[in-house]
């Protein structure tokens, strides 16, 4: 809706006052949720608590879907459009990590305090401000605390939401609150394909069976080829061989060796090309080793096992959702820049659904480390919350 009309609407002004006045509660919510650990695939306890908090924040219809996402539905006045606002429940930290929050002045320190526990608290602050002031929107709003955003989770929460769950095919715009600062809007998706590439062979004695095919040779050949693959600089496209393993003993020709490979691109086209090129290198390495050595005891074979796949999508810089978001943030003094990253927004962006990853406060650092911190200076924090409220309501519209 028209931004100046929104910003001067009495209903908006009341909600803005409420979200600003609720800042201490917002900080308290961050502490409460951070101290409930949420390792990958262990989001359950935090999800349970969040569901209770979301209901207390005034969302009448709260449920948990089959993937473990907590969903809170807030009906609008019946435009038929549905706007999802999300933050992720999981952190990168394994079970057993101490997540007790330490406060020093205006900084909170704890693993996961910013990524993305602060985002979860933003959802609660938004819901509470709307409920407290009886604000009614044109579009329906779906609050989503999702599972599986971080590495091993492979966006399973988002995949379920957009492709299988009750709201699949029904979400018209998507916001995720997951950034360190308000100045960056992520509207592009870095895609990744991750594989464990294994080479197997008959194996044997290193001395007695010398001459037979050796899967380590095929692996080496594959990696040498990978290192030389040409990839475009723009859109940025990358590959990396990371973890290696296999073999049983220094005096044995291995039966199996493997390597983990991470392929990425900001664009689905080059990512698919890189994927194809990698597969050809594997085939070629197998053929080369089978041609070089004796296969009398058995031949080399390869297996490419997917261990992660995040779809890419080009940077979105236009359209109503983007324009409204940029304008709303600008109205609160946040000058934004577009960026591409790997976030929950990958899934909607790859499906052609307008999606934006927002910041959820004014400063943060040390994400994915035990020294993670966020700034909770009230003035700046209140401005960030008000700007987030404005952006969501600019897209969801007020009902007249
Ligand atoms: Zn995150």
Secondary structural class: alpha+beta
The secondary-structure element order is: HHHHEEEEEHEHEEEEHEEEHEHEHEEEH
Q: Which kinds of small molecule does this entry bind, naming each only once? A: zinc ion
Mean pLDDT, all residues: 96
Strand content: 25-35%
Please state how the strands of the largest beta sheet are arranged side by side: 1-2-6-3-7-16
Poorly predicted regions? none
> How many DSSP helices?
11
Give a count of the beta strands, DSSP E runs of length 2 or more: 18
Report, as a whole number of angstroms, the end-to-end distance.
11 Å
Overall shape:
elongated
Fraction of helical residues: 25-40%
Multimerization status = single chain
Could you provide a short overview of the structure?
It is built from eleven helices and 18 strands. The protein is an alpha+beta fold. Zinc ion binds next to helix 5.
What does this structure look like?
This protein is α+β, with helices and mostly antiparallel strands. It is 36% helix and 25% strand. It contains eleven helices and 18 strands. It has helices spanning 3-8, 10-21, 23-34, 44-56, 113-132, 156-163, 215-227, 268-292, 320-331, 346-350, 378-396; strands spanning 61-64, 70-74, 82-88, 102-104, 107-109, 140-146, 173-179, 184-189, 191-200, 204-205, 237-246, 252-253, 256-265, 301-310, 337-341, 355-359, 364-365, 373-375. The protein has a six-stranded mixed beta sheet with strand order 1-2-6-3-7-16. Helix 2 (10-21) packs across helix 5 and helix 4 (44-56) packs parallel to helix 5 (113-132). The longest helix is centred in the last third of the chain and has 25 residues, at 268-292. The radius of gyration is 25 Å and the shape is elongated. The protein starts with a helix and ends with a helix. The model has no long low-confidence stretch (mean pLDDT 96). Bound molecules: zinc ion. The site of zinc ion has 5 residues, from helix 5. The site of zinc ion (ZN) has 5 residues, from helix 5.
